[in-house]
Fold:
Amino acid sequence: MGRMALLWYGQWIFWFVVMFGIYFWHKKTHSEKKNERGNEKWTA
Amino acid sequence: MDSIATWGWIFFVIYFAFMCYLSYRGERKTRGLKDYLVAPQSYGPVIIALALGATTCSAAATMGNPGLVFKNGWPGLWYGFGYGSVVMAWALTAFKLSQVGSRVGAKSLPDFMGIRFQSNFMRGITALATLLMVYYIAGQFAGCGWVFEKILHVPYNTGIIIAAVIMTAYIMIGGTHADVLNCAIQGTIMLILAIVVTVVTLYYVGGITEINTILTKQSPEMSWDMVFKNPFFGPFTGPGIMISVSLFALTPQLSKLWFSLKSERQIPVTLLLGLIFMLFMGLLMWLGGLGSRAVLPQSQPDVSTLEMLVKYTPAPVVALAGVSIMAAIMSTTAGLFLVVAIAAVNDIYRDIIVPRLARNKPTEYYDRATLLGTRIMIPVVMIVGILIALNPPKLLTALMWVGIGGFVGGISPVLLLGCIWRRTSRAGAIAGSVLGLSSYLICYFVIGKGMGVVFFTVPWAGSTVALIIGFVVTIVVSLFTEPPPEEHLNKIFSS
Structure:
């Protein structure tokens, strides 16, 4: 397989990894914030 | 009338009926100026991802870009690299745009820039750069005229006028709601076209290795071993087009769609769905361009994919492809009508001129006047676009870049930095946008068109130089000038 073909396939894999990364990072950050709010509620 | 035209008219009438219904739905949902301009927090990730993809991909994505791959082979895919990185540009700005849209009530991209940098100058220059998009509208009209002529057998000029009147009508009636809903349907039709082209290429033309062998025999410069091809996809212009296409994601008709997303929490899913949509459009460009070059090397670049479908598929499929191309064009153009009209009436008249006049009337009066003015401005934009388009361009993509390049070079670096870097100051933003925009105009019109320097006749060479200047100037000036007030930044940046 040629260099340009590798670049073409590689960049799509890269962007999917990045977007899934953002998805899971955002999910984690949100659930942490939700837990913090939950704890505040219980301790208040 | 041949069977392609008959099927074309059948699909066109069905598509037209859908558009009428969705415009009616859009009109019913519009309850005031803000609804008409942005449809705030109204739609979920699927609708917004389809709208983002459909608005991004236009006549260029369905005709011009497969044509670039047809003409240049694998190195032409530098343009397609931008399809993936477009989503990264969305990711960098979407959170901020969505927050400012819901908290501060930004009504358009120029409005966002005005709020972020506390500057009417930034609001004004972004609105003026938006007005440049009228060239992009003209490029889209040319594509519409072509579809009407070749598929529906209607004369080119009449086709342009029919398409323009339909788009003007649905945007005038339903505003942003009609735009978003229609874009979602148009995006779905475009996905069907991408799937059809992928299947036809792989089934009838052959696998990737087979296609590459044929291309290499035609010209070794088109093979998958070649990364660059001058002047359009050279070591500077190749990555340059990728970055410019990514920053195209920040143009006003796309940025404003984030104001319509229901919740900030839905942004990551919307980004993922947007990436899947762009992947399908990438397949259309890649396999459509290479496949048609392999089997129809004598074809015209811009229409090669369609000619490949004519060769291998029955009339209904070709007609559906024609209507898909029209859907791609309409989805982009309708959004552009709206943002150009909003820039002229809301951003320039309502937000810059009215506050300077003696305001002796209630706000509701100006809101009503703005709504009416925006609706009247849409047909004016249509007429200007038609006048430019009646002189058909040789290469669709080149004409469109006259409008896009100004925005990409002048505004997008400032917008991107303004979203991710708190320190970006008002002075930095003004200096970056003025120098970015003027350097694009000098590169393309003076050095490229005027002096005939080949490198700058490539439209995205000028925009790449301009955006480098824009980034550097904005950062340097921001570091040496007063930072924005902390209280204002907290309002914009706190999560």
Remarks:
- The domain at 3-396 of chain B is CATH 1.20.1730.10 (Sodium/glucose cotransporter).
